[in-house]
Structures
1.
Amino acid sequence: MRIAAAVSREATAHPGIEDVDLEAPRPDEVRVRIVAAGICHTDLHCHSGRGMPVPKPIVLGHEGAGVIEEVGAGVTGLARGDHVVISGGSCGVCPSCRSARPTYCRDAMKLAFAGMRADGSSPLSQNGERIAGSFFAQSSFATHVVTPARSAVKVPADLPLHLLGPLGCGIITGAGSVLEALRVRPGQSIVVFGVGSVGLAAIMAARLVGARDVVAVDIDRARLDLATALGATAAIASDEAALGALKEIAPDGFEYSFNTTAAPAVYEMAIACLANEGVAGFVTRPIGEWKANVALLLAGGRKLQGILGGSANPQTFIPLMIDYWRRGLFPFDRLIEPFPFEQIGEAWAACAAGSAIKPVLRMAP
Ligand SMILES: [Zn+2]
Ligand SMILES: [Zn+2]
């Protein structure tokens, strides 16, 4: 079928909307009419070529939410009309998939960034010419996608779908890191470095679980204010004095730190602020030279822990976050700023500049 999709081409400032052809769903896939899709920094980096290499032209987008229009012949458990949030791709049979840790699937990186299905095909083309698709098993900067049924998470039909897409990446990464990966417990302490959508979700989750000290560190004053409004117990400007300010709050160090930034100096601080046997979680690679201070890790029995997708299982964790939100315990909607699909250029710029915490493109009213 003919759809509208935002295509990323070389040497362009942002993806541009074009007419594209979408294959029918295969037996294990569903076709989803996208209602809205969040923009994540991973999309920005893949478009500009500064992130993981992706083939071009490609349709990016990996925080899609919408309504199932067609189910493949072999799909069970999903039906036409179901509302879904789409998470990343996973194989379903490797050890990580079998233990409900699909973000560590042995094929996860390929299914995210290769611009194709597992068998090498792309569901997208334009007048017979291949367009890379299946980005994070979806390519949701489009009016429609086909996605594996196992990547579609059914959500209640009475919820505002245009808010839910970011639950599939940014929000699950922050909340899952605190609740599933680090497993912060009541009365414990955590420092969150970088309070964009991932860091703010982590702060809300830390408060939800009853952490005592939840400290936000960022360069942006407005974001620190929002972090405080969402439950941070202290907010600290990210500068040379930050480590000293953290030591004042917790002279013996914090049980956890959570680093959402790529700055080598922040990686350093995220370990230096830890108590003995503390854990430093991180979600992206440092940009630039950085070597972990192994002596500091060793001397205090500290750990450095990589985390993808919050280590969470989207099929169970997305419904859990929705449930917390309904009870007023997890107001992730405050991070979201909607833009009409046609204004993808403005939304892209707002994401890059940080003026919108979580821009979301709305394909349908
Ligand atoms: Zn993302
Ligand atoms: Zn797998």
2.
Amino acid sequence: MHVPVLLKEVLKYLEPKANQNFIDATVGDGGHAKEILKLTTPFGMFMAIDRDADSIIRARADLEKFGKRVLFINDSFGNILNIVQKNKIRSVSGILFDFGMSSSQLENSGRGFSFQKDEILDMRYDVKTPITAEDIINNYGETELAEIFKKWGEEPKARLIAKAIVTERKKKRIKTTGELVKIIVSKKRFGRIHPATLIFQALRIEVNQELSEIEKMLKAIPEILDKDGRAAFISFHSLEDRMIKNWARNLNKKNLIEIITKHPITASAEELKNNPRSRSAKLRIIKMA
Ligand SMILES: C[S@@+](CC[C@H](N)C(=O)[O-])C[C@H]1O[C@@H](n2cnc3c(N)ncnc32)[C@H](O)[C@@H]1O
């Protein structure tokens, strides 16, 4: 079961109130959504978006008791403007983005998100996405592989690992996470984090084009939110956080938004103890001017 990160802080800064409309653009297992819905009762409408159809199934089950107030949408938040316009949601008081993957996806999807399990190398949130992690590992050139490992994973052994992958795939197509982990471990020592952590992160970002979806979504935010409407962004990767920070500074300079969190909010000592996923979480909040 996925434990929502920075829940108290998200509620404090998003300030959901009775009858306001909200969007959770990464609804996952519905952890944050459920609490927002309680606060926007009795008539606040709620749009629950997720790119993964299985997440939508889980969220639907979890949020069933809120009935017709919730609209479920299986799409990427990169298409948020289109989604909002198509569904004729006129007023939006707040929107939440909790990037990356959920514990349910990591542990139970069978799609190869975890280096702790031997599964197919897929890593797509949306199974309609054209490219899988297996395609990337077996088809990208050595330089291209090294580049994505460096860019999305900040992996110091990017070149060495890319080279080892290309050598191995000449013998036999690499099809499972287990096979990939074996190659990585042959080139990297165990340290504070598992040697495959950064490569898996980079592959997931590349498969799902995660940063370009964020870029598309950021452009749409000012068109979606009401005046005084708030957006909350929880990121787990320095590149994501930097994108949000720079976007917010830019709009703030033009007096289009107010930055509510001058510095990103991180998990309390208590949350860190109970939820290891909160370790790298950074929350930023903006308000429309
Ligand atoms: C960290 S989980 C969200 C957990 C949720 N806040 C909760 O409390 O249960 C992130 C979710 O975002 C979804 N996701 C990732 N990229 C997305 C995108 N571009 N558009 C929509 N959903 C996306 C994933 O499928 C995953 O279910």
